């Protein structure tokens, strides 16, 4: 047998010099430094020098490290350096040198394997195979040289198995069983890695043809692999075995579970063999196997016969039963202290074990809860109880694992009967779990996260800005927790009310007082708003409020009072139904919040502003209907706004302003609507500062004010507040146009002069920031649909023109302003519109070209430029494109789009968007001259990024454009005026790849080229076709899979037609 030949006799390594070039072209004009001797491939390698280079390169403190790294990299890049691998492995005693040599061998096998003749391939296969066997005899588990050898062997198998090496797995298993447990362990690791490579990590490294071949062959070999694993587990029953081999066996079985046919798992005794190691030093590996087995139940598409389905249920019941028995023993050790109390003192291995327990129990109850509660309710309740204890551990990984199950569990029980004011006519599942659900409630409260995530940033004036996160993982987690508690309230309403009232009441006891727990408790109470009937909710809310007010009264420390007050206001803000039905209470709460806005204690001002905003959000109309004395409540607030917000920071004031603007927006649309809105807005805007900073006397001294940071902050605050007003109340734009906007233009001019005169320093930075604020303000006005001609013309003349003329810097925000104009000003085809469009091209697009051609240094300009291009193409294609296409600058503009393809993802995505729009619009409108001039250059660039290893991030988008370009080629007139486009493109694509990638066979290129035209009708299939060819261009190929590739292409064509 092959294995006897390999192990039984000294196998001579293959002659690596057979493919050695005649003479190296490397010539040195000067004496060669000692380390550079390794670059002379035509001479014997000096192994001492090579080892020295490797040592120097790996030593962080060595002064020759940089030079050694350079030389070693140069050595690796030499096309025939791999011919020295054998010599290095035989003569060097340095492990690091062996590793470098094996990296060279791995690279040559991955890319140039097909260049070797059959004898060389066989020699290398046997040589590597024997090396793996020899190296694996050692007990060193961290042998990175062996790991690299395993990688090389797997790469060879991916190339030659099963066609040229049909006995690979048989050889590996036979030789393992005939030598030692260490060799068995490594062979299992190889089989595990091979399975992962073929079934999991094969997307970018194996073509579909090879993938299918390897997967099919691996499935054929499953009985043999399964038998190997099962034999080891059976052998371990009665014989002392190397523990690392047993661990590797369980890990390998875990890896194969997902790809292995179900009958191997459920119709054999393999699960029993695995369960025997549950209470052993291999419990983590055993649990990992069980998790994989249970998770198979998530995929109901797997083929299941009636026999397998029945066996699966019995096996799951067995797994659950034995796990519960094991957990009873394990939890017995936590008699005096709970598991969540001692978890912090556990060692790393036990913590991993607990995480695996959480994963297994969560999977069991998420996938098989119906089976378990029908056949084993007693153990199911016990297991859920254990999972609750584990869920209470202070570890986010454990809780997030269990919470997914709890969330589904609670929602399923809720969905069975989602009502609170009706009685069910049948016994509900929830009645079986009352005790579990009550325990779960306490766990969820203990883990309750913050309602929203706020982070602090500092703006150009060093002013603190609070920004709310709306889409972070933490916020998503809070939303899920809130939803889970909300649904849980339907299941145990009475118990939940008693729990919360009792827990808040306990805080009155000094021994129980915990401000952090009170926060979580109140966040949880806020989450169940709306879950009870209105009557029950009112009673519950009043009880909670009484306890919290009593708690606040009895606390003497201001810090404690602040925490309690903050929570009171949070809960009030959540229970808006109560506020809507208790109008006087709403006014009382709002006034109390105004008092808190004057408090100095840390966080109270933020709390007051945020809760005022939330109340307004839920009850805006109440501020327009209720009265304070003789005035409408909103008028009372606006008149007293300077006093209310007097001690707030500017960002806090703007939170209050935004809330009030939301109220004003709700003014009824009656005859006096506009006058009321304008009068309310005037009241608000007049209270921004204690003086009118837009008055002429203050604007006249702007050049001196701008150097003062505090005064610059005031200007910024006024501008941001006006922008907020225009965004929420677009009606105010027209009234500001005559008196206010001219002042903004004046401020812009003054700041512009300052930036031109100073060019650096405080005045320059502040003036530049104020300019950007004004630009954003004008963009807000235009996005509010205020596009009066005179105003837009003034924006173009004063602001847009500055982009072209400013010699100091280009403000990216002006490009965004241009996008706002394009989006909102209707293209009516008038002379004014066309003139403005031409102005945009000359003032914004053309001046941006040199900056976009250096996009990596000008990212904001590049992104805003491409957004402007995208908007002009979308909203004004006909006039814009015809105007631009006829100008000499068109080629430069188009080149910016092609160049941007290779930039970072944000820029590249925008560039692809623009190119896609142009190609689609030109096709719709039959602008064929564009294709005659630009189709081929665009195709070349698109192919360039598709087959660039570093441009994978927008591959889907690249393929969509590529497919469209191929698809429309049949409709476009001949690109050279003579030949059909399919001929032109086929010849071009074949010629390009044959020339650029001589490593690919011409037949493969032809199949690729033909497939492009046949498959372009289905974007997904087209992408699969391109993906396969992407794999092939990075290695030297053969035509051994040619027929399979043709068959695959034909199969895809049939799928396209269907």
Structural class: mainly alpha
Strand order, largest beta sheet = 1-2
C-alpha-based Rg, rounded: 37 Å
Give the count of helical stretches.
53
The overall pLDDT, averaged over residues, is 91
Helix content: 55-70%
Polypeptide structure, described:
Belongs to the exportin family. This protein is mainly α. Helix 33 packs parallel to helix 37, helix 43 (831-852) packs across helix 45 (877-885) and helix 44 (859-875) packs across helix 45. The chain contains 53 helices and four strands. Residues 1-32 have low confidence and may be disordered. Among the domains are: 430-581; 803-823 and 838-925; 935-1057, no CATH class.
Break the fold down into its secondary structure elements and pairings.
Elements: H1 2-8, H2 47-58, H3 65-77, H4 85-91, H5 95-112, H6 118-136, H7 144-160, H8 168-177, H9 181-199, H10 208-238, H11 243-257, H12 262-266, H13 270-275, H14 283-295, H15 306-331, H16 339-342, H17 348-367, H18 369-375, H19 377-391, H20 396-416, H21 434-446, E1 453-458, E2 464-469, H22 473-491, H23 493-506, H24 515-527, H25 534-554, H26 558-574, H27 576-581, H28 583-596, H29 604-618, H30 622-625, E3 627-628, E4 631-632, H31 633-639, H32 641-644, H33 650-664, H34 673-685, H35 696-700, H36 702-705, H37 709-728, H38 732-739, H39 741-758, H40 761-783, H41 789-805, H42 812-824, H43 831-852, H44 859-875, H45 877-885, H46 890-900, H47 905-924, H48 928-946, H49 955-968, H50 981-996, H51 1002-1015, H52 1019-1032, H53 1042-1057
Antiparallel strand pairs: 1-2, 3-4
Helix pairs in contact: 1-8, 2-3, 4-5, 5-7, 6-7, 7-9, 8-9, 9-10, 9-11, 10-11, 11-14, 14-17, 15-19, 17-19, 17-20, 18-19, 19-20, 19-21, 20-22, 21-22, 23-25, 24-26, 25-26, 26-29, 28-29, 29-33, 33-34, 33-37, 37-40, 39-40, 39-41, 40-42, 41-42, 41-43, 42-44, 43-44, 43-45, 43-46, 44-45, 44-47, ...
């Amino acid at each position: 047998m092959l294995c006897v030949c390999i192990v039984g006799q000294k196998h001579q390594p293959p002659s690596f010099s057979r493919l050695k070039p005649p003479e190296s072209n490397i010539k040195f004009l000067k004496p060669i430094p000692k380390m550079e001797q390794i670059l002379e491939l035509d001479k014997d390698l000096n192994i001492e020098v090579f080892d020295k280079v490797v040592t120097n390169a790996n030593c962080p403190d060595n002064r020759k490290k940089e030079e050694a790294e350079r030389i070693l990299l140069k050595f690796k890049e030499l096309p025939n350096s791999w011919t020295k691998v054998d010599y290095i492995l035989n003569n060097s005693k340095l492990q690091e040198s062996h590793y470098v040599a094996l990296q060279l061998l791995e690279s040559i096998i991955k890319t140039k394997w097909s260049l070797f003749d059959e004898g060389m391939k066989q020699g290398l296969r046997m040589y590597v195979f024997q090396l793996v066997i020899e190296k694996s005899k050692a007990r060193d588990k961290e042998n990175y040289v062996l790991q690299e050898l395993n990688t090389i062997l797997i790469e060879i198998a991916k190339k030659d198995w099963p066609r040229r090496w049909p006995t690979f797995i048989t050889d590996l298993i036979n030789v393992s069983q005939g030598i030692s447990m260490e060799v068995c362990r490594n062979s299992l690791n190889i089989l595990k890695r091979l399975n992962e490579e073929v079934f999991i990590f094969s997307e970018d490294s194996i073509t579909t043809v090879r993938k299918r071949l390897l997967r099919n062959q691996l499935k054929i070999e499953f009985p043999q692999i399964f038998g190997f694993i099962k034999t080891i587990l059976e052998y371990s029953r009665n014989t002392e075995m190397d523990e690392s081999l047993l661990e590797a066996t369980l890990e390998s079985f875990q890896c194969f579970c997902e790809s292995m046919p179900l009958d191997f798992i459920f119709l054999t005794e393999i699960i029993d063999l695995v369960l025997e190691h549950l209470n052993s030093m291999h419990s983590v590996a055993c649990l990992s196997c069980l998790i994989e087995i249970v998770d198979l139940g998530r995929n109901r598409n797997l083929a299941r016969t009636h026999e397998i389905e029945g066996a699966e249920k019995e096996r799951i019941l067995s797994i659950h039963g034995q796990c519960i028995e094991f957990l009873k023993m394990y939890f017995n050790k936590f008699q005096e202290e709970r598991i969540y109390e001692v978890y912090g003192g556990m060692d790393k291995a036990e913590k991993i074990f607990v995480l695996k327990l959480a994963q297994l129990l969560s999977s069991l109850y998420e996938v098989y809860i119906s089976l378990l509660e029908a056949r084993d309710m007693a153990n199911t309740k016990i297991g859920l109880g254990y999972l609750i204890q584990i869920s209470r551990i202070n570890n986010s990984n454990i809780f997030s694992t269990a919470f997914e199950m709890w969330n589904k569990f609670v929602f399923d029980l809720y969905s069975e009967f989602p009502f609170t004011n009706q009685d069910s006519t049948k016994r509900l599942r929830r009645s079986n779990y009352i005790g579990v659900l009550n325990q779960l409630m306490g766990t969820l409260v203990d883990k309750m996260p913050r309602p929203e995530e706020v982070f602090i940033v500092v703006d150009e004036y060093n002013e603190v800005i609070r920004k709310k996160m709306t889409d972070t993982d933490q916020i998503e987690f809070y939303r899920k927790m809130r939803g889970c508690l909300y649904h849980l309230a339907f299941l145990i309403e009475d118990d939940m009310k008693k729990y919360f009232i009792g827990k808040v009441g306990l805080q009155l006891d000094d021994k129980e007082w915990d401000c952090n727990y009170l926060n979580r408790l109140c966040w949880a109470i806020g989450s169940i708003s709306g879950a009870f009937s209105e009557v029950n909710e009112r009673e519950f809310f009043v009880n909670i409020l009484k306890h919290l007010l009593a708690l606040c009264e009895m606390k003497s420390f201001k810090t404690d009072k602040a925490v309690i007050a903050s929570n009171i206001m949070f809960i009030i803000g959540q229970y808006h139904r109560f506020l809507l039905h208790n109008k006087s209470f709403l006014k009382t709460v709002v006034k109390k919040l105004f008092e808190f806005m004057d408090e100095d204690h840390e966080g109270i001002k933020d709390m007051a502003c945020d809760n005022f905003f939330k109340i307004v959000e839920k009850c805006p109309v109440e501020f327009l209907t209720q009265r304070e004395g003789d005035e409408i409540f909103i008028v009372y607030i606006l008149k007293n706004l300077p006093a209310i917000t007097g001690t707030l920071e500017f960002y806090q004031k703007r939170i209050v302003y935004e809330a009030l603007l939301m109220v004003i927006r709700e003014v009824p649309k009656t005859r006096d609507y506009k006058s009321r809105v304008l009068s309310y807005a005037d009241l608000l805007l007049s209270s921004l500062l204690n003086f009118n900073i837009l008055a002429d006397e203050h604007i006249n001294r702007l050049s001196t004010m701008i150097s003062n940071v505090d005064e610059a902050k005031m200007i910024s605050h006024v501008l941001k507040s006006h922008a907020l007003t225009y965004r929420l109340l677009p009606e105010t734009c027209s009234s500001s146009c005559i008196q206010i906007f001219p002042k903004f233009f004046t401020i812009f001019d003054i700041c512009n002069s300052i930036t031109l005169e100073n060019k650096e320093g405080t005045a320059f930075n502040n003036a530049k920031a104020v300019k950007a604020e004004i630009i954003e303000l004008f963009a807000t006005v235009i996005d509010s649909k205020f596009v009066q001609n005179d105003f837009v013309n003034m924006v173009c003349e004063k602001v847009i023109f500055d982009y072209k003329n400013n010699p100091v810097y280009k403000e990216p925000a002006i490009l965004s302003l241009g996008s706002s104009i394009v989006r909102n000003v209707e293209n009516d085809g008038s002379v004014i519109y066309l003139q403005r469009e031409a102005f945009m091209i000359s003032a914004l697009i053309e001046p941006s070209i040199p900056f976009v051609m250096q996009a990596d240094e000008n990212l904001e300009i590049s992104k805003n430029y491409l957004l402007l291009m995208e908007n002009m193409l979308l909203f004004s294609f006909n006039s814009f494109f015809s105007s631009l296409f006829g100008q000499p600058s068109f080629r430069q503009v188009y080149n910016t789009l092609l160049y941007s393809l290779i930039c970072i993802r944000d820029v590249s995505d925008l560039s692809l968007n623009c190119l896609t729009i142009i190609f689609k619009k030109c096709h719709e409108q039959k602008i064929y001259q564009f294709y005659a001039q630009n189709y081929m250059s665009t195709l070349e660039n698109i192919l360039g990024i598709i087959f660039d290893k570093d441009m994978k991030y927008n591959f889907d988008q690249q393929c969509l454009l590529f497919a469209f370009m191929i698809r429309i080629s049949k409709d476009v007139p001949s690109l050279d005026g003579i030949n059909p486009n399919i001929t032109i493109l086929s010849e071009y694509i074949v010629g390009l790849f044959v020339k650029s990638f001589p490593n690919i066979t011409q037949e493969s290129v032809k199949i690729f080229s033909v497939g492009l035209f046949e498959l372009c009708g289905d974007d997904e299939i087209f992408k699969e076709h391109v993906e396969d060819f992407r794999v092939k261009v990075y290695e030297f190929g053969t035509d051994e899979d040619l027929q399979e590739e043709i068959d695959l292409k034909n199969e895809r064509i049939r799928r396209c037609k269907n």
